[in-house]
Design brief:
Region (Disordered): 151-174
Number of helices: 3
CATH class of the domain at 9-143: Alpha Beta
Largest sheet: 4 strands, mixed
Domain VOC: 6-134
Helix content: 10-25%
Distance between the termini: 49 Å
CATH architecture of the domain at 9-143: Roll
Protein name: Catechol 2,3-dioxygenase
Shape: globular
CATH topology of the domain at 9-143: 2,3-Dihydroxybiphenyl 1,2-Dioxygenase, domain 1
Structural class: alpha/beta
Strand order of the largest sheet: 1-4-3-2
Order of helices and strands: EHEEEEHEEEH
CATH superfamily of the domain at 9-143: 2,3-Dihydroxybiphenyl 1,2-Dioxygenase, domain 1
Number of strands: 8
Organism: Desulfatibacillum alkenivorans DSM 16219
Pfam family, one: Glyoxalase
Length: 201
């Protein structure tokens, strides 16, 4: 079974990278760890944790989305509701709340969800963000819980992957075919690094 290491990155969109950097790097404190682009396109990555990033494409004409409360039901085509970013301590949760309020961003009071305490806000692009502190002793990863009053039949099979649901691999990729072709991002290691230039001043 594949061992996943986290969300390598979530890819969002913005029409204003300057405001996006100010929010994610300067207000929230997430390092800007990679940036590439050309006229009309930027793609920047901010470090959430040692395994996780959030990335933004900047495209001309992108506008902030209309704000929708986190988890509020919708109809029709829809793919994304909100992103929840974990914090280590309760103090950090309230420090973030205070920072957001001081910067003029509306933020909710902390909500107790049983296994996490969360606050909710929006970034300058209208992206709904939740910040979550795990309640000590209530780790749903170690002890999964299902209390849905109308549970999905498939969920009742248990928390672990169920074998035999999908076809087995019959044609694995041969070793000599395992080649990664050049894609966006190769510039990060082939062109002058603007961060290094800044350090030379």
């Amino acid at each position: 079974m594949t061992k996943f290491t986290g969300i390598n990155h979530l890819a969002m969109a913005t029409g204003d990278m300057e405001k996006t950097i100010r929010f994610w790097r300067d207000l929230l404190g997430m390092r800007l760890v990679a940036g590439l682009g050309r006229p009309g396109l930027r793609h920047y990555f901010f470090e959430i944790s040692e395994n996780d990033c959030i990335a933004f494409f900047e495209w001309d004409g992108v506008e902030p989305v209309e704000k929708k409360d986190h988890g509020y039901p919708v109809r029709g085509p829809y793919v994304f509701d909100h992103v929840s970013i974990g914090v280590e301590t309760e103090k950090e949760l309230y420090d973030l709340k205070d920072k957001l309020e001081a910067a003029g961003f509306p933020v909710t009071d902390a909500m107790d969800h049983g296994f996490i305490h969360s606050i909710y806000a929006f970034d300058p692009n209208g992206i709904p963000i939740e910040f979550s502190w795990p309640v000590p002793g209530r780790d749903i990863r170690k002890t999964p819980v299902l209390v849905d009053r109308g549970p999905s039949e498939t969920a009742l099979e248990g928390p672990d992957p169920q074998p035999g649901q999908w076809p087995e691999v019959s044609k694995p990729t041969p070793q000599d075919w395992r080649v990664a072709f050049a894609g966006a991002g190769m510039d990060l290691f082939e062109k002058p690094n603007h961060f290094e230039k800044k350090g030379e001043n």
